[in-house]
Design a protein that fits this description.
Helices cover 34% and strands 24% of the residues. It has one domain: Aminopeptidase. It is an alpha+beta fold. It contains 5 helices and 7 strands. The structure holds coenzyme A (COA).
């Protein structure tokens, strides 16, 4: 039987350097980008997909933890429309998705440690994020992933459907769910 995993709100956990390290380890393991030209480039990459959400939207961040408090997964996101909020202007593909992000402004990033995937933890984190986004009165939520990626099935089963394609050669898919 798999070990029981609890989902908690990120702001409820003591913010220690160890906690940051655990979350970062999951982020970098799950990322497709594995090498960086410099430490600054690595830090900027972390800031873009993880750090700024923890800083700016801690109430929308949740952690999955084992009984001894080890972090095995996280979800972060925002309810702000990324095509309109200046802090997301570094993500090029949103310029072409403004119509869609207006309907589905909330967006999220979820990652689970390899040994804990396929146990429904990602789905539980999505449920918590969705509840928080609804409380914040977001009309819809989206994710952007690659066409044909393994996680598309996961998002589909969690209520996200394809709304648009984006990026160079349409290799990105915008999946969305009404809240
Ligand atoms: C995608 C992910 C968050 C889902 O969390 P989870 O707890 O494994 O999800 P659940 O147990 O609720 O659902 C399992 C589904 O996750 C997906 N999944 C499982 N392992 C995966 C992996 N290594 N990479 C991508 N998706 C994966 C599959 O769609 C699987 O569905 P299936 O049983 O039909 O194959 C998690 O597997 C993960 O972190 N994967 C790697 C990183 C990633 O793709 N993150 C999302 C970035 S957009």
């Amino acid at each position: 039987m798999s070990e029981p995993i609890a989902i908690c709100r990120y702001p409820d956990i003591a913010q220690t350097p160890e906690l940051a390290k655990e979350i970062d380890a999951i982020f970098f393991e799950a990322s497709n980008t594995k090498s960086f030209v410099s430490d600054d480039a690595r830090a900027a990459f972390r800031e873009r997909w993880l750090g700024r959400y923890l800083t700016h939207d801690p109430a929308l961040a949740f952690l999955a933890r084992t009984g001894d408090g080890t972090v095995v997964g996280y979800i972060v996101g925002s309810v702000d429309d990324p095509a309109k909020a200046a802090r997301f202007s570094d993500i090029g593909y949103f310029a072409d998705l403004a119509e869609q992000t207006e309907r589905f402004p909330a967006h999220l990033h979820v990652n689970i440690s390899p040994g804990f995937r396929n146990q429904g933890i990602g789905g539980r984190l999505i449920d918590r994020f969705v509840a928080a986004a609804k409380t914040a009165r977001a009309p819809g939520v989206h994710v952007v992933t690659s066409v044909g990626a393994e996680n598309v099935g996961f998002y589909n089963r969690n209520g996200f459907s394809e709304v648009a394609r984006a990026g160079k050669d349409g290799r990105l898919v915008f999946l969305a769910r009404t809240l």
